[in-house]
Structures are given as structure tokens and as C-alpha cells.
Write a structure and sequence with these properties.
The protein is an alpha/beta fold. The protein contains seven helices and nine strands. The strands form three sheets. It has a five-stranded mixed beta sheet. The protein has a two-stranded antiparallel sheet with strand order 6-7. A two-stranded parallel ribbon has the order 8-9. The termini are far apart.
């Protein structure tokens, strides 16, 4: 038996906020059985099939990794493991399975969570200057899944920019910063509107 933390997001906790429950279980099957006893019938109905397995729309993460890439419900658990479950659909908007895989680490953070990721996806940002500070800022925003980003900069890339503007390389010297940044950021995350 492993001692672990099972995190229930607010959307599966009847809107009562994220809930962390300490349990002991040898594998995911046992963990779900125990958490279902604790959470009650409404949780069981929303999360589990009649045979006790999670519904197909429930994504299970163990220490930030999607359980579908391990041994499924028979995945052995270790002391200190953290299990986080997320519905593929929550409220009026949804994150796809691809989104949940891509952003799983930040969705697991209590400070961001599923709803925070939806807010990021629906956000619009304008960054003026894609130089020293704008370069890492635009990269991070796009990587985090911001919905739409506008970049404003009239400058061209110079050799002297490369040591601090890591998005660019020597092949980009002489090119317009905004055009090069847009291409590279689109490759980083094709789902973001640039």
C-alpha cells in the first residue's frame, strides 16, 4: 500500500473548490474505489462506469503524467504519488485531450487549474517589443496556451541581439523581428492565434 494524495478538481467537487484527500492504495483501481467511498454517490455517477472504471471523459494524471501512457488502472502506486483527475469537458467550454496532455503540468497547479487554463486560452495579449524582455515573454505566453497574442515591433534582427533574444538565430539577421517571431511562435504552439 502506498500513501498518496488524490486531488479532485472543483468541477467534480460540486463547485466546492479543489479537494485534496490523503489515501492508501496499491494501484489506481484501489485508489478509485477508496476515493469513491469518500466522495459519495454523485461523484461515482459522474466519474465511474458501472464496473468501477473511470469514464472515458476522465483524464487521470499520476505525478503530472497521463496514466494512459503507463499500465492503466493496474498502475502500481508509490508513497508520495499525486493523482489528479480532470474531466475532458467542464462547464460551457472545454479543453481537448490534446490540450490536457500539453498543459497537464500547469493544470495540476492549484493556482491555475482547469478553469485557469480556460482563462488563458480565452485571453488576448498585446506585447510591444519582441526584444530583450518581449522575447521570453512571448515565448512563455505562447507555450502556456494564451488564446491570442499580438506582437508589435518595427525593428529588424541584428547580430548583437542574438545573445539575449534566444528565439532568433544567425539565419534571422536582417529579417523583421515580428515576422520571424510569429513563424517561430506558431511552430511552438500552432493552436495560438498570432
Amino acid at each position: 500500500m502506498a500513501n498518496l494524495t488524490f486531488t479532485i478538481p472543483s468541477v467534480l467537487n460540486q463547485g466546492g473548490g479543489e479537494k485534496k484527500i490523503e489515501i492508501s492504495a496499491a494501484n489506481l483501481t484501489e485508489a478509485f474505489a477508496k476515493i469513491s467511498e469518500t466522495m459519495g454517490d454523485d461523484f461515482k455517477r459522474r466519474v465511474l462506469e458501472n464496473d468501477g472504471t473511470p469514464r472515458s471523459l476522465i483524464n487521470i494524471y499520476i505525478n503530472g503524467k497521463n496514466a494512459k501512457f503507463s499500465s492503466g488502472m493496474e498502475t502500481e502506486l508509490k508513497d508520495g504519488d499525486e493523482i489528479y483527475i480532470l474531466p475532458a469537458v467542464a462547464g460551457g467550454s472545454e479543453l481537448s485531450s490534446k490540450d490536457l496532455d500539453r498543459y497537464s503540468r500547469q493544470v495540476m497547479l492549484e493556482e491555475i487549474g482547469y478553469q485557469g487554463q480556460l482563462k488563458l486560452r480565452n485571453a488576448k495579449v498585446c506585447v510591444v517589443g519582441v526584444g530583450g524582455l518581449g522575447n521570453p515573454i512571448t515565448t512563455r505566453l505562447v507555450a502556456m496556451g494564451i488564446g491570442k497574442i499580438r506582437i508589435v515591433d518595427r525593428d529588424v534582427i541584428e547580430l548583437s541581439n542574438l545573445h539575449r533574444q534566444t528565439m532568433f538565430d544567425e539565419d534571422d539577421v536582417g529579417e523583421v523581428k515580428v515576422e520571424v517571431a510569429a513563424k517561430k511562435l506558431q511552430k511552438l504552439n500552432p493552436d495560438v492565434q498570432i
